[in-house]
Amino acid sequence: MRPIGEFDDEERASTFSGYLNYKGISCEVEEDDEGKSWTVWAHNEETLAKAIAEIHEFRQKPDASKYAELAREAQKQEKKERKIEENKASRWRQETLRDRWQDRNRRPGIMTMALIITCAATFFVSKRGENTEPVGAFYISEYVHLGAKDAPVYLAATQTVLPEVMQGQVWRLITPIFLHFGFLHILFNMFWLHDLGSLIENRRGTGHFVAFILLAAIISNIAQYCVSGPSFGGMSGVVYALFGYVWMKGKFDPGDGIEMNPSTVIIMLGWFVLCFTGMFGHVANWAHAAGLAVGTLWGYASAMRWTGNRG
Known about the structure:
Blueprint: E1 2-7, H1 10-22, E2 27-31, E3 38-42, H2 48-60, H3 65-105, H4 110-125, E4 144-145, E5 157-158, H5 163-166, H6 183-204, H7 206-228, H8 236-252, H9 262-276, H10 285-310
Parallel strand pairs: 4-5
Antiparallel strand pairs: 1-3, 2-3
Helix pairs in contact: 1-3, 3-6, 4-6, 6-7, 6-8, 7-8, 7-10, 8-10
């Protein structure tokens, strides 16, 4: 920018600046530190000579009606253009980031529905989790790990960690997520799986969603097994991974369209803490913790990758 001229009256500086903008000479007014003078600056050097010629004419007849009239016209045009830009930005935010994404993202994805159906089928086959025999192959192990607490009756005790997995039954690292014990258990997990899983699957794609579920399931199941042995099951470790991912994306990369209501964050974290108190009995708390860690780290890394690139 280059200075065009200085005024000791703010109104005249604004009038002249508006007049120049109307004439197509882009400029702006800057007040000095003491508030005693106002300098008009030209944005482009190419227009400086023309602007200086205009200021000489303006100083001779600063009260001429054409200057005030054209300055007002310039202000009207500026307001109109600003409103158009604001409307465009508002439509983009409202339609792209809210309506369009939410409508699309809340539809249940194929894999989300497949997980829900599998959990429901396993729940009823096992008679609400009371009969472990039909679903024994879904447990991470059917052997009691020596030192484990609250373990049901399995085939035998062993000092080997994950004996069936070591023999090639690698699906057991994942399948405990399909086991549920009681209606409240499965209803809680399926509600959040549908809500958060659909959001991520539809926004990120089925391939990304499957990879996320597999990683969250394996890590949360192993974490719980290492602490309490094989007597556990449920989708809650994965649910907390989904929660952590959406929480971080909404917090650090809101422009991606994946977000969560603050009240939901409070509810999920509150439930997480309450379960650790033991007031709800035997809960797979370490699966919750491991899943939450997976989700928050993945979500934070994804948010930083995109916001870092944009920055």
